[in-house]
Amino acid sequence: MRGLExxxxxxxxxxxxxxxxxxxxxDRSTTYPVGSLQDGIDDVDELAAGGHPNSxxxxxxxxxxxxxxxxxxxxxxxxxxEAVAFGSGMATITATLLAAGAAGRHLVAIRxxxxxxxxxxxxxxxxxxxxxATADAVAAAIEADTALVLMETPSNPTLxxxxxxxxxxxxxxxxxxxxxxxxxPILQRPLEHGATWALHSATKALGGHGDVxxxxxxxxxxRARTLRQVRIATGALLDPQAAYLLHRSLPTLxxxxxxxxxxxVELTKRFDGRAGVSRVCHPSRxxxxxxxxxxxxxDGPGSLLTFEMEGGFDAAARVMGAVExxxxxxxxxxxxxxxxxxxxxxxxxxxxxxxxSCGITPGLLRVSVGIEGVDDIWDDLDRAIEVANRG
Length: 391
Known about the structure:
Blueprint: H1 4-10, H2 16-19, H3 37-48, H4 65-77, E1 82-86, H5 89-99, E2 106-110, H6 115-123, E3 129-133, H7 138-141, E4 146-152, H8 164-171, E5 176-179, H9 184-187, E6 197-201, E7 215-219, H10 221-234, H11 240-249, H12 253-270, E8 277-281, E9 304-309, H13 312-322, E10 327-328, E11 338-340, H14 352-357, E12 364-368, H15 374-390
Parallel strand pairs: 2-3, 2-4, 4-5, 5-6, 10-11
Antiparallel strand pairs: 1-7, 6-7, 8-9, 9-12, 11-12
Helix pairs in contact: 4-11, 5-10, 13-15
């Protein structure tokens, strides 16, 4: 198998020489000619069953060649048989829950997860019942009608690390869904550790430039068929322009992830002894990785870090208001550094007691480290913290 650096450059481009082009084309057709009526009938039947067309995509809601190219690339990176792309990360997780037969059934989930995911599960919008369990208590939480176990590692926003293989062992016959957004396939491939689905908000590092919203999930071919059936029925196919942007960004994924990771490691060191900061977490610190996940399950600690201001909410708000180079905004994985307040923004929809139980405090700030010069990032952070300390 080719190395990751080669896969990100060449994945999904197998047919370009035959097409006589160097860059992947954008196919924006909403409808497609059929060779004959019978060919069209055969393609409709195959698409309706969640398969790939033999001769014609028939209709743009059913299938798009530009999207399919990027899906092949992601499947290769995740060491999966197939991948299925959707119009957003939340559309992806909703479709995966539906495809897994979770509607009206029981789920086990490990907090924290992204706030939107938490909200989807807690409100029961899909008719699901959820038991929130710690990573070591998954087996005890499973019931007779449990449809799946859901987890995120590193978790959003606290960067808690979970042993995927251990959770899979506890789950037994129950399939496991892992949100791999923070790690990306460059640093972690959940299917290698027994997970059933590896899911991404592709809006984040896979896109990497803050200009596209998308989601994707990698899995085996049979489950991919069901996912495509859900996608057809709900009209959630990723837009081809977005797929083109994602494919264009893919060749630099490994470079971006590792450069931002190097910056995050260095910034974490510079927080040592910083007045006004009570806690810093990055998986490069042994205290944030007590089970040795990095180096065993993850190929690196990633580019996200969190720190907690001693002054609580007011101090955190002052930091966000004082940064100049860093952008105060939600999302992550972009080339530029972002800072956000989880309790007030990404996890605002999560109940306060649930926030506090998993370490989301009023003074907590999450930093998505970019690829700028690390001295410039630190100077901005350090100055903003000093402004916050002065009150």
